[in-house]
Write a structure and sequence with these properties.
This protein has 12 helices and 10 strands. It has 387 residues and is of the alpha/beta class. It has 3 domains: 144 residues, HUPs (Rossmann fold), CATH 3.40.50.620; 160 residues, 3-Layer(aba) Sandwich (Rossmann fold); 53 residues, no CATH class. It has a 10-stranded mixed beta sheet with strand order 3-2-1-4-5-10-9-6-7-8, sandwiched between helices. The chain is elongated.
Length: 387
């Protein structure tokens, strides 16, 4: 087991310093390894390798009880050798690693080790092999995505090897961040910027912000264009705000930030179309596909049904691209919510400005949604006169 990197080592300050990779010995699960190694190398972080030794009764149902102990010991030794071999492979040259071999159920141990090892992110592929000593990473990945409090980078089965880890200067690493005007959606911005900075290092990555707008059916042309123009103004403001926040955080966080509006009837399909096929971006020519999609989801009970819950789930099940799923801070923590809103969600009042100390920058088409947004600010203890 290697020691974690010191704070003095290189890389961008922030997330992706302690990257957990669950393995089961399958080639599919191992597709996460080069991605995690690249992330750790770019961020100056380390990789935590995990293999759960299954000791449940179902794993040894046809084995005589006196032999179970020997089989468990054999499984433990094999898993230790396997993880040790992985850590000494060429892809981890210069990358600090550590191994964990817990006993128990796979899903609970992934979350438990993520907590005990102080991991700040999880990288895994969508499906592993099945068998007596294997686990189905499809169901495991779904559970982890739904219940982990950490950002989870999910590589799609059969497409993980397509993740461009070593782009040239003419092809920067690109992350698509869909925004819907909500606080929750913007929670993916900072993790996405940190991810592409780690993957693109020492080059600059590209952060592509997008908003999907439903097409108008019977309204005059000017009225149909109005939601698009509103979305463009919103994305332009958010792009400027993100640039300022990232530069204030670290000089190393300097991604190229572009934006585009996609007109599409279905939000998830529109997001996937932009990510996989490219889209005209503000200030730039038409760009090609992205390398990863970063989205926020809400609620510890699963992918919820408000915009960045059901849409995230729709993208997750349909895209061939890696998906970074980020869970925002617990909404029930009012003091933390207030701090987040004050520090990150609302630009500070500039000299001579005529707007309140805090204001809501969002494009909301539904009256009920607007009322809910205002109520969320009140619940966060922001005075009514400042909204």
């Amino acid at each position: 087991m290697s020691t974690p990197p010191s704070a003095s080592q290189g890389g961008v300050e922030g997330m992706f310093k302690r990257i957990l990779v669950p393995l089961d010995g399958s080639e599919r699960a191992e597709q996460a390894l080069p991605v995690a190694a690249r992330m750790a190398r770019g961020s100056g972080g380390s990789v935590i390798l995990l293999q759960v030794v299954d000791v449940t009764a179902s794993s040894y149902g046809y084995v005589a009880p006196p032999l179970i102990g020997n089989l468990i010991e054999t499984s433990l030794n094999e898993a230790r050798k396997y993880l040790t071999d992985v850590t000494t492979s060429a892809m981890f040259n210069g990358v600090p690693t550590e191994i964990h071999l817990p006993f128990g159920s796979v899903t609970s141990q992934i979350l438990s080790v993520a907590d005990s090892s102080q991991a700040d992110s999880i990288v895994l592929t969508s499906q592993g092999l099945t068998g007596v000593t294997r686990w189905v990473l499809g169901s495991v990945a779904e559970y982890v995505v739904r219940h982990a409090s950490l950002p989870v980078l999910l590589l799609q089965e059969g497409n993980a090897s397509d993740f461009d880890l070593h782009p040239g200067p003419e092809r920067p690493v690109r992350a698509l961040v869909p925004l819907d005007g909500s606080f929750l959606a913007k929670a993916a911005l900072s993790p996405a910027a940190l991810l592409i900075s780690a993957l693109a290092a020492p080059a600059r990555g590209t952060l592509h912000l997008t908003r999907v707008v439903k097409p108008g059916k019977t309204a005059p042309e000017e009225e149909r264009k109005n939601p698009v123009h509103q979305a463009e103004r919103y994305l332009r403001v958010i792009a400027d705000q993100v640039r300022e926040e990232l530069r204030a955080r670290s000089e190393a966080l300097d991604p190229i930030i572009i934006w585009s509006v996609k007109v599409h009837q279905d939000a998830a399909e529109g997001i996937i179309d932009v990510a996989e096929n490219g889209e005209h971006a503000g200030g730039d020519d038409v760009l090609g596909s992205c390398d990863v999609i970063a989205m926020a989801t809400n609620g510890r009970s699963g992918l919820q049904r408000w915009v960045m819950g059901s849409v995230t789930e729709g993208v997750l099940t349909k895209t061939r691209l890696p998906l970074l799923v980020v869970r925002p801070p617990d909404e029930t923590d009012k003091s933390h919510a207030t701090s987040e809103i004050q520090e990150r969600e609302f630009p500070l009042t500039r000299p001579g400005a005529a707007y309140p100390k805090y204001y809501l920058m969002a494009i909301i088409d539904d009256v009920k949604e607007a009322q809910d947004a205002v109520q969320a600010l009140r619940n966060a203890d922001i005075p009514a006169e400042d909204i």
